[in-house]
Amino acid sequence: MDLGVFARQHRLAITLLAEGWSRFDDLVRETGLPRRSAEDLLAELGDDVERDRTALRLRPGTEEKWLDHVGRQATPPTDLAARIEAHLADVPPPLPALDHVQATADTVLRRALWLDEHYDLGRVKTVFVGDHDLTSLAVRELRPDADLAVVDVDDRVLEHIDRRSRGTVRTVHADLRFGLPRAVAGTADVVFSDPPYTPEGMALFASRAVECLAEPTSGRVLLAYGYSRRHPTLGHQTQRALLNLGLTFEAIVPGFHRYHGAQAIGSSADLYVCHPTPRARRKAKGAQAIYTHGPRSVEAEGTASATRETLAALTALAGEDGRKVTEAAPDWTKPITAEPGTAVTLDLSGDPGPWLARVLLAVNAERVAALVPNAHPDLVDAASQAALIKLVACKYRLRLLRSTPDNKHAVVVADRMEGASAARPVWTRAHARLGNVWTQAPADLSELRLIDLPRHRIVEVLRRLTAEDSTPN
Hints:
The protein is α/β, with parallel strands linked by helices. The chain has helices spanning about 5-20, 25-30, 35-45, 65-70, 80-90, 105-120, 135-140, 155-165, 200-210, 230-245, 310-320, 355-360, 380-390, 425, 435, 455-470; strands at about 20-25, 50, 55-60, 125-130, 145-150, 170-175, 190-195, 220-225, 245-260, 270-275, 325-330, 335, 340-345, 365, 365-375, 395-400, 410-415. Helix content is about 35%, strand content about 20%. α9 (about 200-210) links the parallel β7 and β8. It is elongated and about 90 Å long.
């Protein structure tokens, strides 16, 4: 009897049967279990169910056994709220371009308690698709036995979660516009997400959430979503987008989430509990414009900052020694291998920060030229530049051309490095499982791909591989 996502109703049924005699019709009505599910539960309870005509009860002394069987709720530590406050105290600052608006500590606590009440968190696998609010850490504090993973585009958030959880929450990097990493695809029973509040953003995150589910029709997708009650059409558009993905609304809990900011929607959002239908496996297209702010916002769509002249200058730099030039999309989900004598150009002018390093890992070419914002996080100061150069030094020699070809952009030119090192086979096969390209890969990394790791873990892999180079045979 796998009751992970139905734990609450089955706990209630067992409690009612343990309290005394109950008619079957009353049991269905009080618990909300479908008739067939209630019958299946009684069959599972077997001889521990006593019957008197139409009345039923649980045999005295068996309640504890069956509550253990369906999964108990946790007893919250007395300082749970304080622990959550501590996690949030030094969370990386919100990035407006990623629609970060911080949820209140009370909301994060409420989310953890709600998840534990409704699902057997000790047995289900839960994935958080984006987690700047650190709901995963709240659940970890409440349920040390929970199986948790976080997917996020913000390497800072992933590092914070990894450090605060002491590695007990799996962290995986992804920009969902380009795809979902294999490390979390088809692994979850429950997925929680607080997406960008645009129809495009909600649909994309919800679609990726469905991809996370091992069995979509028996899993659940929980979404935060808010809209101004002055503009109900926005709510209608988003709800229609979710319905078009094959999601049904099992529940909508008004005003469940509260935020510091987001006053246009009353600093609040509803909780959507979505039950995927069999056709919900369909994937949404990876729309670029999903946010409400920044260069990749819905409002900014069609106003690309990279002009024809800018891209022409990029091509000229890539082919400056007469080599052939080919363009590639800003997508690192698959390897990109160029023919000998060919340079690869990429327009990364919409890069919020993490694209550049991962593109350099994904592309194998004699030369790569990438157009990035002049204020790109990897270029803003000498320390950031040195860190990027060191990160890819086993594969590429970098030239960082600030304010090129104009004061809004920079160009990063990467020329292939020759020579052998322990890191080079791993860096040139970033999409392979680490255990296949690194003979001494730690057990917790062997099944993962370098391209999916948070950046701080990529740095750690490099450190270990560099140590192997310096170890005498």
